[in-house]
Predict the 3D structure of the following.
Amino acid sequence: MANPHHNERPNYMLPEFEEARLFFTVEGKTDQEAAAWLSNVWDFSNTRAIAAWDQQRAAEVKALQEDRERLEQEAERQHLLREQEEEQAKQEERKKYKSKFAPIPDRPLPRETTKPYYTLIGAC
């Protein structure tokens, strides 16, 4: 369906519309009156077509917005699910390898060295 906003009212005084004007000139109207009446009918019809077109476009825009929102929500849900799975995998990893993830205390190195145990045994 073409956009009725771009339609131009035809000139009903042209010879191609003579047959349409004849229906009204039979009742005693002039060609100008018949053309004016046909123009009014065309205006009414085009106004209804414009309203239908606008309503259809509004429905399409609304449907597109709803689809976009639904897709954004689905993407957000997938993102959160992925983050939860990654966090759960990290927790499982920490449970498996506790020593790997043991905290390292933030303190200075000792200044005096300790003697190894085997040196103490040999001294006896």
